[in-house]
Write a structure and sequence with these properties.
4-stranded mixed sheet; Trna Endonuclease, Chain: A, domain 1; globular
């Protein structure tokens, strides 16, 4: 595939497909330095330019020259955002308003605008304030004196006192991560009016300390009647922070990138889909760690464990691989068989995206009583039918 267009035009890439592109020196250096783990960059055997392959990543990258890389997934773009919405617990209204968009940059711009709307509404209602413990070397005593630290810092010059005090403030983690993301996505937005809105949000939250929180911070937030309205905003924050993360531990961010690993997204999407559709009496446990051996040396981590009547009823693992009906991935079967054995479960399920034909194979393991099923979910169904297809898939899986 050849990508045409330079001088500011977008570079369009397709998941797992090589594309010949022309790159300026600054863009080339940026890709080599920042995106080496996401994008594969090589020279073609003949001709000029570079071969660029996004591998399993989908999303948008802003290059230093002003050009944008748009990495399209193999699934329809709107279905990709439905997967994001389900995986990140976004509001149902988010899905309803994306029906008219077909291009990834259009929906991406809408997602940023949607986030700005949520934050603007929250600012109008009033930001959440809470009591925060602070320590500071002050000219006047406030709260209580921290004796040891005061002696260490002020043993010679006594015009200041090191104090510990409680402050009722907007400067708390709930608001810090919102300001962090507003500042970050302000650099992504293409529309000048949208960039201005996000700049205004950043300025209106000037009393909130700039931070660089990882998405995992949101897991530690406790919601109650005073901050419950922040939940959808924080879900959006997680979406942007995970899309901007360039490291496996989600601890380093680049404001130019919004890329998702389709392998991880597929796992999260299926997990949240099944959790939301689990029938009464079935409890879902996601990504929990267990041990394979009595010596506690080997860790296993199934994507989903379904409990029924307090016992493990079904072990489910998600694989972002496109199988044909005759293509059985033996190592996937071995893996789920090991999960079932260690967890004393008689049924394992492998979920794949559908490729050419639907398949539903069951393998009864000799001498064990364990059965492992392979099933597929169609990620390429027409966008207007995708949400319904997902619900039917989950309900069918639980009904068996």
């Amino acid at each position: 595939m050849i990508a045409t267009g330079v001088n500011g035009e977008a570079i369009h890439l397709q998941e797992y497909a090589d594309t010949i592109v022309d790159l300026e020196d600054g863009d080339l250096a940026y890709i080599q330095r920042k995106l080496a783990k996401q994008l594969t960059l090589t020279r073609p055997l003949y001709g000029g330019g570079y071969l660029l392959n996004p591998n399993q990543f989908a999303g948008v990258v802003a290059l230093p020259s002003g050009r944008r890389i748009e990495c399209r997934p193999k699934v329809p773009v709107r279905n990709f955002f439905v997967m994001l919405a389900i995986a990140f617990d976004l509001e149902p209204s988010f899905l309803q308003e994306t029906t008219t968009f077909q291009e990834i940059d259009q929906i991406f711009e809408f997602v940023i605008s949607y986030f700005a709307d949520l934050v603007d509404d929250q600012i109008r209602r009033g930001l959440y304030r809470t009591y925060v413990e602070r320590e500071e070397n002050l000219a006047a005593v406030r709260g209580r004196i921290a004796i040891a630290e005061d002696i260490r810092q002020n043993s010679i010059l006594r015009q200041r006192t090191y104090c510990q005090f409680t402050e009722f403030t907007w400067d708390n983690p709930d608001n810090q991560i919102v300001r962090q993301v507003a500042h970050m996505v302000g650099g992504w937005a293409q529309s000048p009016s949208l960039r201005f809105r996000l700049h205004q949000i950043d300025r209106r939250m000037v009393e909130v300390t700039p931070v660089a929180h990882a998405a995992s911070v949101i897991d530690r937030f406790n919601y109650h009647r005073l901050n419950a309205e922040y939940r959808p905003i924080h879900h959006m924050c997680r979406l942007f922070l995970e899309g901007a993360s360039l490291s496996e531990d989600h601890g380093r961010f680049d404001f130019r990138t919004f890329l998702f690993d389709m392998n991880s997204l597929f796992e999260s999407f299926v997990t949240k889909l099944l959790s939301g559709r689990a029938p009464v009496g079935v409890a879902i446990e996601a990504q929990s760690q267990h041990r394979l051996d009595f010596e506690q040396q080997v860790v296993i981590k199934p994507d989903v464990i379904a409990f029924k009547d307090g016992a493990v009823h079904r072990v489910i693992d998600c694989k972002y691989k496109r199988l044909t009906g005759t293509d059985n991935k033996n190592h996937d079967l071995y893996q789920v068989h090991a999960y079932c054995t260690a967890l004393r479960c008689q049924e394992g399920v492998l979920i794949y995206p559908r490729h050419e034909n639907p398949f539903d194979s069951t393998f009864h393991i000799r001498n064990t009583g364990i059965a492992v099923r392979q099933v597929s979910i169609d990620l390429g169904v027409a966008p207007e039918l995708f949400a319904t297809h997902c619900a039917v898939f989950a309900d069918t899986l639980f009904s068996d």
